[in-house]
Design brief:
Length: 260
């Protein structure tokens, strides 16, 4: 549990924090975005979505979460996603997941989650969302819910629809999107701090990894996030999983990693 002693912490495989590291820096101090050469933001997102899929929806898309019959386990459709994504542009880094769920009224629904993890926004993001949607609909003939998580550092980049029209013929495609930078607002950051939802820690780790201004600050935030694992009283499995995700997202220079 998060309140266990240092001895219990070591047994769980997580390095205990020393006293005095529990106070958090100012969440509003975003500064210059820093991505180290070793940072890998798409892989931890993929893992977090698989482990905490229900918690992810409950935190960021509660209306969708409320429509799902959670007594029927979600099924991740990696092969099916690869079929529609094989023509996607190379070089961009995404954390895409396709999940089969059933709604409370018994309908089979596929949820496509697209996480933009790059520091720079993509001009054709909305077109790509539409492309995946119609490919899934055409190939599999199922209802599709497309969700976008914008983890980039541009406050102006907020795609939520795709439109194309000519000579009276056109199409409009809308999709729910969440801008993670909005959670740096004091009231929303406080909500994350107070939430017992494990995915709140994933969001906070992502924000600190993308917006912190110096290695020293990164280390401070990393210590604070790991301490929060204990304060929330999570079990051993959650502590180890969330520690892995935080450690994966919030990279530090070698000298600071050794001290951590």
């Amino acid at each position: 549990m998060a309140s266990d002693s240092n001895e219990d912490s070591k047994a769980q495989g997580v390095v205990p924090l020393s006293p005095g590291t529990g106070s958090a820096p100012d969440p509003g101090e975003t500064g210059r975005a820093v991505d180290s050469a070793t940072a890998d933001h798409d892989s931890p997102w993929k893992e977090a979505l698989e482990v905490y899929f229900s918690e992810f929806l409950a935190l960021l898309f509660p209306a969708v979460h409320a429509e799902i019959d959670w007594e029927q386990p979600p099924q991740f459709m990696d092969k099916e996603l690869q079929q529609v994504a094989r023509d996607a542009d190379s070089g961009r880094r995404y954390a895409d997941k396709l999940v089969k769920v059933f709604t409370l009224d018994g309908d089979e629904t596929w949820i496509l989650i697209h996480v933009e993890v790059q520091g720079e926004p993509e001009r054709d993001f909305a077109a790509r969302m539409f492309q995946y949607y119609y490919r899934l609909l055409d190939r599999y003939g199922v209802d599709v819910i497309s969700l976008a998580v914008l983890a980039d550092t541009s406050r102006q980049f907020r795609p939520h629809d795709y439109r194309r029209a000519h000579s009276g013929c056109g199409v409009e495609f809308r999709f729910p999107s969440v801008k993670l930078l909005d959670y740096l607002a004091p009231e929303r950051w406080q909500m994350l701090e107070q939430s017992n939802n494990p995915f709140a820690l994933v969001v906070m780790a992502q924000l600190r990894a993308k917006t912190v201004r110096s290695p020293g600050e990164r280390a401070g935030w990393k210590f604070w996030l790991v301490r929060l694992l204990y304060d929330r009283g999570y079990g051993q499995a959650d502590i180890l999983e969330l520690f892995r995700i935080i450690d994966w997202m919030v990279t530090l220079p070698p000298d600071l990693e050794l001290s951590f």
